[in-house]
Amino acid sequence: MKYDVIIIGGGPAGLACALEARKTNEHVLIIEREARLGGILKQCIHDGFGLIRFNEKLSGPEYAYKFSSEVEKQDIKISRLTFVLDIKKDSDKFLVTIVNEDGIKTLETDNVVLATGCRERTARQVFIAGDRTAGVMTAGQAQYYVNILGQKIGKEVVILGSGDIGLIMARRLTLEGSNVKGVYEIKNTPSGLERNIQQCLRDFDIPLTLSTTVVQTFGKDRLEGIEIAKVNDRMQIIPGTEEYIKCDTLILSCGLIPENELAEKLHIEIDRVTKGPIVNNLLETSVKGVYSCGNCLHVNDVVDYVSESAEIVARSLKNKEIGEEIKVNKTPLMGYVLPQKINLAYKTPTVFYFRVVKEIKKATLTVKQEDKVILTRKLFNLKPPEMVRVLIDLKDIENKDLIFDLKEEE
Ligand SMILES: Cc1cc2nc3c(=O)[nH]c(=O)nc-3n(C[C@H](O)[C@H](O)[C@H](O)COP(=O)(O)OP(=O)(O)OC[C@H]3O[C@@H](n4cnc5c(N)ncnc54)[C@H](O)[C@@H]3O)c2cc1C
Predict the structure, then answer these.
(1) What is the DSSP letter of 231?
(2) Cβ(356)–Cβ(296) below 8 Å
(3) Looking at ligand 1, which residue's alpha carbon is closest to its atom 33?
(4) In terms of C-beta density within 10 A (0-12 exposed, 13-18 middle, 19 or more buried), how is residue 6 classed?
(5) Are 67 and 15 in contact (CB under 8 A)?
(6) How buried is residue 281: exposed, middle or buried, by Cβ count under 10 Å (0-12/13-18/19+)?
(7) Ligand 1 within 6 A of CB of 334
(8) Distance, CA 10 to ligand 1 centroid (Å)?
(9) What residue's CA is closest to ligand 1, atom 2?
């Protein structure tokens, strides 16, 4: 049998995509490598999910359940404990190779949706010297041990990186009786959302030290301590500022990287900034018929936008008209704008997401084509960790690059 669409990943992106896609497609399959649907949200037991979409504060499992329970009721096929090994384009269809307890099999589909989420940077990727001792782990691993396995991971904890998962784990470990000695951040601004800095650090008197990194770990079998040091504005260690901290656990929250090994196998064009595929307004990648959504497209700040991008993909699946494509350009104050291209066959209202490169109190966004202004908007309190979402009606655009021009104001 040939599927209309195979969705790889049963996290919030894959689930939202499947529900929306089933409205207009008969044969929809979700492939998930784990035993349960829900993705990473299964281990995120704190609340704060769904504020935008449902106007209520849900925990991660509650948010995932809203979608997974609905998916189970629909005629959507699910292959659990199944790993996608490879995807190949074969004239007008795709061949998806999977492995599970039945062995290796190849499935056929018209469309592929990549919803594989992201992974965390490890100690090696952030260049910390030292042996591979027990007690050094990523924030996601710590979250899994504590929230899913119910284990205590250490007594004296230091966290490197002020990403949201690290901040949430600082609070979680404090509530579980560990002494969280501090959070250290190499940049001169925090990486996580302001609400998490307040609710997870300040409310629990956990110090946050900026422009500081962990240089090396000490200990053979179990971590015994770490060396931290101040860095300059080029993130180089300042000699003489080294300091030893005794601890048995080091948690890394140093950024997430979109998981795109399958996209790379398909030779999909990847954006150097987002580390996800370059997509057009249908969220279609450079390989026609392959779409990307959720955290494998770009690392989202809140899950509500993950679900939104997945639904955009689902509604695009039948839009097969190949129009001319124009580029979306940006000014240097913005790290990226997504989608990066527009298929002019679909001049419909389109959601754009972007991030700024530094904190900006007040700015004006002008979206234009040469001198023709499409949209102007005043924006306030922009911060690099927080995504900005803008809905733009593209009905009047022409065959010229679209420019997102952001200007800081006094
Ligand atoms: C460790 C960690 C903790 C997080 N904690 C928070 C938090 O506390 N709060 C918050 O707002 N956000 C958190 N996030 C962000 C969170 O990931 C997103 O909000 C959201 O879960 C992303 O949804 P997704 O569906 O894109 O990805 P995921 O939830 O990661 O789902 C992707 C799914 O794809 C499956 N998959 C991947 N590759 C394959 C393959 N080859 N074959 C089959 N299946 C595959 C995975 O098993 C997974 O189930 C966290 C992220 C991580 C990595």
Answers:
(1) B
(2) no
(3) 9
(4) buried
(5) yes
(6) buried
(7) no
(8) 9
(9) 140
Pure H helices in 78-220 = 139-143, 164-175, 194-196
Q: Which atom of ligand 1 is nearest to the CA of 14?
A: 25
* Structure token digits, residue 126: 């952030």
CA distance 280 to 197: 34
State whether the beta carbon of 114 lies less than 6 angstroms from ligand 1: no
Could you tell me the distance, in angstroms and rounded to a whole number, from the CA of residue 283 to the centre of ligand 1?
19
* pLDDT tens, residue order, the chain (410 aa): 899 999 999 999 999 999 999 999 999 999 999 999 999 999 999 998 999 999 999 999 999 999 999 999 999 999 999 999 999 999 989 999 999 999 999 999 999 999 999 999 887 777 888 888 999 999 999 999 999 999 999 999 999 999 889 999 999 999 999 999 999 999 998 888 888 999 999 999 999 999 999 999 999 999 999 999 999 999 999 999 999 999 999 999 998 999 999 999 999 999 999 999 999 999 999 999 999 999 999 999 999 999 999 999 999 999 999 999 999 999 999 999 999 999 999 999 999 999 999 999 999 999 999 999 999 999 999 999 899 999 999 999 999 999 999 999 98
Amino acid, res. 177: G
Q: Which of 83, 295, 296, 306 to mutate to test the pocket of ligand 1 (most atoms within 8 A of CB)?
A: 295
